[in-house]
Each structure stands twice: as C-alpha cells, then as structure tokens.
Amino acid sequence: VGELLSYCDLSLSLSLSLSLSLSLSLSLSLRGSHAPFTPWNSLFLYSPPHRFGRPGVECYCQHESGAAVIQLQFLINEGALVSALADDSIHLWNLRQKRPAVLHSLKFNRERITFCHLPFQSKWLYVGTERGNIHIVNVESFTLSGYTIMWNKAIELSSKAHPGPVVHISDNPMDEGKLIIGFESGIVVLWDLKSKKADYRYTYDEAIHSVAWHHEGKQFICSHSDGTLTIWNIKSPAKPAQTITPHGKQPKDGKKPEPCKPILKVEYKTTRAGDPYMILSGGLSYDTVGRRPCLTVMHGKSTAVLEMDYPIVDFLTLCETPYPNDFQEPYAVVVLLEKDLVVIDLAQNGYPIFENPYPLTIHESPVTCCEYVADCPVDLIPALYSVGSRQKRQGYSKKEWPISGGNWGQGTQIMLQVLYKLKTAKVFEKTRSKEEKPNTEIVDEDPFAIQLMSWCPDSRMLCVAGVSAHVIIYRFSKQEITTEVLLEVRLQYELNDLESPEGGGYQTPAPPTPSTSPSPQTSGPQTHHSTSSNSSDGIRDNVPCLKVRNSPLKQSPGYQVELVVQLVWVSGEPPQQISSLAINSSYGLVVFGNTNGLAVVDYLQKTVLLNLSTVELYGSNDPYQRQPRSPRKSRQPSGGETPGSATSEDRCKSPTSVLNGCFTSFCFLPTVLLSVCPPRAALPLDNRDNSFSRSRSSSVTSIDKEAREAITSFYFCETYTRKTDSTLTPALWVGTSLGTVLSISLSMPPAGEQRLLQPVIVSPSGTLVRLKGSILRMAFLDATGSFLPPPSELWYEPNAPANGEERERVRKRRPVSVSPSTSQELNEHQYAVVCSEKQAKVIALPSQTCIFKHNITETSFVLRTDVVQTVPGICVACFCANGHIMTLSLPGLRPLLDVNYLPLTDMRIARTFCFTNLGQAMYLTSPTEIQRITYSQDVCENLQEMLGELFTPVETPEAPNRGFFKGLFGGGAQSLDREELFGETGAGKASRSLAQHIPGPGGIEGMKGAASGIVGDLARARIALDERGQKLSEVEERTAAMMASADSFSKHAHEVPS
User: Fold this and answer.
1) pLDDT tens per residue, range 209-245
2) Which single residue of 47, 500, 598, 737 has CA 20 to 30 Å from 345?
3) Cα–Cα dist 353/332, whole Å
C-alpha cells in the first residue's frame, strides 16, 4: 500500500509497480554455499510449476491439460522431473534443454493418484492410489511394472474395512527391500518387497497425514489429524514408543491433551553434534482463532513457532547429503506458501529467513499500477541497485541464498530482479483518531494506493498519483537528507454544480499570503489549522484526504520527496480522482487532470502555473456549447486569479526558502480555485475491476456527459503550436475523453538561475484534432519518421555541496531537446501520432492536416496503445478489449499484426497492460503475477539463446561408509536389485487397461536442445568421465583397504588361542 518497486533485466528494461508477488514457485536444485550437494526431492504444488534456480535463472512450465499439480519428484542430478497431476496422470520432464518439455506421460484410467515416491538413484517410481494400491513405474520407459501391492494383502487378513487412500510411501533408509506404506485411516504397513508380504502393521486411532524416517531406519514418526505425533519402533508394532502433542495443553491429571488441528506434514532430521530436528506444519490449538499459518521447529527442548503470511502448501528441509541413511545435517527449510516462497535458516539463532532474490511477494497488497520501460540509460540500473542494496533489511539471514541451480548464460534478459523499493505512505501522517478517518473515504481501498505513475529515465524524476487525489514528486539523490517541513500545494475546485435554492456555489475564503502574516513562524501553524478543519455545520470543506507530515522526515539515498500536491474537499464533496499524469524534467513541470480539468505545477519554483477546467481550455471554440446546471457567484479568470485573493504574482511566489534543495521553513498551503466541479458521480477505483467508468460511445450527445469531459492523456513536446509557426516551441498536448486534442503553449525562461527566478508563461492555444473515443496516446515523429521523445535533462546530484564541482555542472546544464536549426533543415516538418479508443491519426505539422487515418476497431475499443520501437522500425501497438493485439506501421498506419491473444476477462489486465520497445508487453494476470509477452518475430527467434541453462550436473557425494564390521556381520544399509524384482522378467507385464502411455514432444525438443547446446553436452560428458574415473579410483582404494583389513583380521584370528 503506497509502495513502489523497480525491477530490471539484462536488456536494461525497468518496470515499476505498487506491489508484486509470483505464486507457487519451485527450484531445480539446491546447493548451499557450504553444502557440496543438496537435492530437492519432493514438493507439492497446486498450480503449474515455476522453476527457480540461482538468482536470474527462472522457468515456467504449463501442462496441456491445465490440471492441478499435486506432487513433484526430481530425478536428482539427472536433469529430469516427474510431475503428478490431479487428473491422475504423471509426466516426465526433460530439464537438460533450455525449454523443458514432456518426454513421457502416463494416464491412469481406473485409479486416482494420491502419492508418489522415487528413491534416490532409482529408476522405479512408486505410485499410491485412492484405492489403497501401489503401482510401480519405470521412469526411463514410463511403463508399468507387473509388480503391484494390493491393499487387501497389505492389511490384516481379518480386517474387512478398507484402509483408505495411500498417503505415504518410502523405503527404509537402511534396507531398500523394506517399504513403509501409510494409509489415511491410521494404518502403517512395513512391506517386504522380496517376500511380497507385510512384516509389521502399526495401527493408530487417528488419521495419518504424513510419515518420516529416522536415518538409522529403526524408528519412524507419523503426524495425525488430532495434532499428535507418534514415534514407532519398527519391531514394536503394538503401541507407539512416544506420543507428542506439540501445541496441545497438557492436563495436570495426566489425561490425554485436548485435540488440536491436524499436523499436515512432519520431517525428522538428525545431526551428528546434537538433537534431531522435528519440523511440522499445522497442529495448532483450536482456540487460536485468527492466528496465521505456522511452521513449528522442534529442536531438543526448544520449540519455535514461525508465523507465515499465507497458508502453507508444502515445505522441505534442505540437508547436507542426499543419502537417507546418513546424518541429514539440516541447514534450511524451504516453505511453499500460496503466494510466496520462504527459506528459513536453521543454523542461525531465531531462525531468520533468507532474503528472496526472486520477484515474489513484495507486498501484501495487490498491484494497482504498472509501467514497463526498455532501453534505459546505462547508469540507471546500477544507480537503483546501489541505493536499493543499502536499504535496511532487518531480520534476514546473513548467508547467501541457498538455491543455486542452473546457469545464467543470457537468461537474465527475460528475468526480473528487484532493485529498489519506495514507500510513498511515509509522506503522510497515519490516522489515529476516528475523526480524521472519514477524510480518506473517497474509495474503499487503501488511501495510499498508487493509481498513476510518470517517470523520466534520463533525469530519474518520478511522479506518483494516488487514489486520495494526491500527487507526489520525487527526485533521485545518492545522499541522505532530512527535510524539516515538506512543501504542500493544495488545489481546490470551486463548487458550482450542486443544485441549491440560492442557485449559487460556495466561495472559499482567500488564503493568507506571506505579506499578511507577521512572521513565518506564526503563520505556518495557523494556516495549516484553518485549511484542515471542517466547517461548523459538520460539512468537510477545504480539507485534504490525507495529512502531510509536519515533523522532520529523514530521507535515505534514492527517491526523495520534492513536492506534495493535494486536492481538497469542497462543501462536503470529495475531490475527483486523478485520471492523467505527466512530468517533464527539461521544463521542470508536472501536469495532472481529472474529470474537472487540469493543473500545471512548476516543481522547480513550487508554484501553480495553470488551473483550468476542460471547458475553459476550449475558450470560445467549445463545440458542445455546455452550460452549468447552476449559476456561479464567482469565477476564476483563465489567468488563475480569484477576486478577493492574493494576486497571481504573489500566489506564484514560493513561500519557502531553499537550502541545499531542502525546504526548511514554515509550510504555507496556497489554495487555488478551479472553475467546474460537478457532483460526485464517478465510480470508485475498486469498481473498475468490473466496469468502465467512462463512456465507450464515439458520439456523445448528452449535455451532462459533455460537461464532464475528463482529461485522459498528456504529452510534452517541442513542436509547431500554430499553423503559422515557423520554429519549434515548447508545448503541452492534452487529450480528453471526448476525443479532442488541445494544445497549451509553454514560454520557458532561460536555463540556469533565470529559470528559478522568472515565471513560466502558460497559455491555452485551442483545439488541434478530434477523434472517435477517448484519447489514449500521443507521440511525435520527425520528417524522416523517427521517433521524437519528449525533451528531458540528464540526471545530476541535487544535494551536491554549494561550492562543489557537481553544483557548477548543474548550473551549466541544458535541457535535452530538438534544436530548431535541425528541424529547419528538414523543411520544418513533424508528424503527430494520436491514438484513441477507436481510431489512429497521423497529423502533419505545422499545417495540422490529417495525412493518415485508420479505424482500429468498430465492435470493441482499445484498452492500451503505445508508440514503440521495434527491429523493423516505429509502430503503434494496440491491445483491444476483445483480446486482439494489433500493430500499425508509422507514419502510414498500415496493419502489420492482428492476433486474438487474450479476451478481456479481468479489469486488472486493462489497468496494467503496457507495451514497450523491442516488441515486448507486460500485464498482471492476477493481483500477484506478472505475465511478460513478446509480439516480435526477432525476439522469438532469439529466445533460445536468451534462455539460461536449467540443469548443471554436480558431483554426487560419496555414500556413507558402512564400516568393515557392519558389512561383515550386517547392520549396514541393505541394497536391492529392483531391476530383477520389478522388471518384466521377474514381475511380468502390467494390465494395459490400467494406464495409457502417451509419448511427449520432449524427444524432438531434446534433440533441438542438444544440437544448440553441444558445448554444454561436451562439458557434461567431460564431468561424467571425470566422475567415473574418480569413482573407479575410489573403488580401487576401498578394495585395497578392505583386503588389508581382511589380512589383518585373519592374522589376529590365527593368533587367538583356541
């Protein structure tokens, strides 16, 4: 809420949004900085899987069926992944190619899949079903084995009740021939794979949710639906060795604790140096109503309860070894939440979380505004990263992010990285009393929510408009400053459209000026008090929706507040929300508009230059002949002067003194009147998710609607304002909701010190062109058809010392603009491109004649349009409400592309869809997920090279040493020849009607990936040879050691007297 973030990628693209989170993510392989090898073996998901490796490595995969993913199993260090779906199908993904693809699929016909288990370094996958049976799949060929474990053979023969679905399968860490099977009803079976019978059966009267082994294979632990944990010795099936209720209240009389919520999952991890870890999700007491989801970590006598922001989907403990029969040595826990991915550091006190490098949950509020800018200045992203890395992030682990699978390559060209976060709510005071709260009730959502943004990459100036009718202007600085008092400019509309017996409007008293106050110290508080209080009859008047802080504000390096502008209530009527916004660093101006009119603010001199209604912009050339419904007692002249108030010259003077760019004197709040303010009729922002607030008709005839002509777009430029102009002059083009484009001339003073002393003269110049529908976008081309960006200046350090070199450079800087001499060489010709919801026109300047015209759509309307740079040249990109993405050539407006991409199903897409250069676009598919697309053939052809490597083989660690006596007398890990047991020779063929094998397209894609990545394959082959040679040498060394040990044992055995 009121937070702004920035992201970047390698192609110097930058995106700004309020808050962002990508849900349900997954890593390919996990290797900590201190761990040579860490597998991620299993994870439950409930959406198409995202795959994340090291920061910058990211991949998204979608199953064709669209069914929910219920479980994932990695083939550890093999570059493959098995996914189980809710439609009872399992799929084998090939991760050795840049674009993962499905190699094989297996669709079960008669049974529903409930659980899967793939042992480490095994090619046989155990699949448990809802009927209680277990089938075995060969993951290489994706065929079923004839070996099947039926539920009626697993349970007691005398039992007639069905045990329920299979909820857990795992092999004994010390004996691969023993398989433990957990049924939902509470029955656990230890199954002997060779003898095909149950060795032991363990029964508990509560349903089972998960099972976990101790690494020695002598004990296992179960989690139950009543919030208990039961620890069993495998050779004592009669009763549990121990029963624990982690969150239950222990009665004093020794009775059973009160039942708690189900423990959905438990993991049991051991360490060499200390007590084991028990990590579980759920199990809280039922009396903890409203408590957030928790993960519990039990280590020795300590129990830590870690609250999560979202419900827990699954978690996994990261350990030092992939072998289940060795001490696990856990060092982190990966927790998958519904809208986040959290990694907890187990090795540090307090269990802090790792700072997430992925653009996942940035904030708990949904994204409300999104801008995507490509080809940023080369020094911009390093500058944002520099200040963003210094932002205080308390409570995070000091270690590096442990997920480090994959290689970048050029993959960062399509990945997002968080650079910087800006909290706009810091400018305002938090409401503490109920009396202050009604002032923010313009909309039902958060009053600090960001609605619009305007950003200049060259100067790094940023302007943000919020839903509470406020505008904040930020300037970028690398130095920390403390602003004593923020300057606030309040703009107030004259209320003249309310029906009343007197037929007149309300006139606001004139604000005081510095000349009427005895001293700044006394006038500041008095002015602030008079302008923020309600009238005597309880009607809110001259009150802003938010209250700006009047205490010193410490501003860290990065974006710092330059100016705050607020619209105020008038006679009980709230201000209309801001509908358009633009900032220009070359002119030092900010302009914003709404349904009433527009205001131009000089943020360098801190003055209001123009404050007019839309009607007054037309002047005497208004084509609609509108009349207000109630006469006005007073009207503000077009020059901005109000009778009885301070003169325009006095009002334009800044009432503060400037000291190194910081406003340190009293806060003077000038009030300026606008002409027309109709009664409140616009839809609140939260209703825009379901309907549009502006008319879609191309010919609006209603007088009421014509009187409510809103400002929809702005564009600063240097152009020919009038037909008779022979030179370029600064101007502001204004687009309205009725399809009209108007021009405002800007007379700028000389640069340097004169710019801060002389006023900027602003004057409306009349109507230029009309189109069907609301104006959405304007741009300019030179005579050769090249794009002319708005003039801008380069960034400079605003807080440089007064006698420093930076300050001298600032005084000599010049705005970046197109010189008139260049235009004169091109016969003084320009082209203006104007796009509306229905049409696009190209206007020749200075003649102002339409040379090209194209009707974009007749049956729908355009939601977003931009003039973008692609490889072939400049074009117009449009996204329509019927889902079509279209591009038009410039300046000819010839159709180049028309694709039916995505029909409008959610207003969030309409609010966040944006185009950028290089043939890319972006929008939010949900409140937390960003979708990036490309409509460029060149990008599609190079996409394979842009992707990173997902699979990077690592050396498999050495298996735990069994020891000579354990190998001689038993007690060590027992191996199993699964091929002999499960293969067709030993188990026969499975029934063809049980499951259907479906070949996937991954074979062809894999060949393509191999052809494109032959260097990577050679590197992998070399690593494999090195590993093989190393393993052979290790085997030789072990053989020699065993022979020496055997000779020594034989010698000592002969020396023992009989």
Assistant:
1) 999 999 999 999 999 999 999 999 999 999 999 999 9
2) 47
3) 9
731: β partners: 717, 745
Q: Give me the pLDDT at residue 1050, please.
A: 67
Q: For residue 374, give both structure tokens.
A: 């490509």
Strands in 302-307's sheet, in edge-to-edge order, are 263-269, 277-282, 294-299, 302-307
Interaxial angle between packed helices 1002-1012 and 1014-1055, expressed in degrees from 0 to 180 and rounded to the nearest 10: 100
HEC string of 953-999?
CCCCCCCCCCCHHHHHHCCCCECCCHHHHHCHHHHCECCCCCEEEEE
As a three-state string, the secondary structure of 849-879 is EEEEEEECCCCCCEEEEEEEECCCCEEEEEE
CA–CA separation, 601 vs 593, rounded Å? 11
Q: Do residues 343 and 36 make contact, with C-beta atoms less than 8 angstroms apart?
A: no
428-466 tens-digit pLDDT: 887 655 455 545 555 556 888 898 999 999 999 999 999
- Comparing CA positions, the residue from 635, 407, 349, 655 lying closest to residue 512 is 655
Rounded CA-CA distance 830/781 in Å is 6
Confidence class of residue 1009 from pLDDT cuts 50, 70 and 90?
Answer: very low
Residues in the chain, overall count: 1058
- Please give the mean pLDDT across all residues of the chain: 75
Q: Answer for the pair 871, 917: CB distance below 8 angstroms, yes or no.
A: no
* Other Cβ atoms within 10 Å of 439 Cβ, number: 21
Tokens 């969030």 locate to 908
Side chain identity at residue 576, one-letter code: Q
The answer to whether residues 897 and 874 touch, using CB atoms and an 8 Å cutoff, is no
Whether the CB-CB separation of 45 and 33 falls below 8 Å is answered with no
My answer on whether omega of the bond before 903 falls inside 30° of 0, hence cis, is no
Sheet with 729-736, side-by-side order of all strands: 711-719, 729-736, 740-747, 761-770
CA nearest neighbour of 200 among 221, 171, 180: 180
Q: Taking Cα atoms as reference points, which of 594, 626, 630, 635 lies closest to residue 498?
A: 630
Distance CA 759, CA 619 (A): 23
30 CB-near residues (< 8 Å, 6+ apart): 38, 39, 40, 318, 334, 402, 403, 404, 405
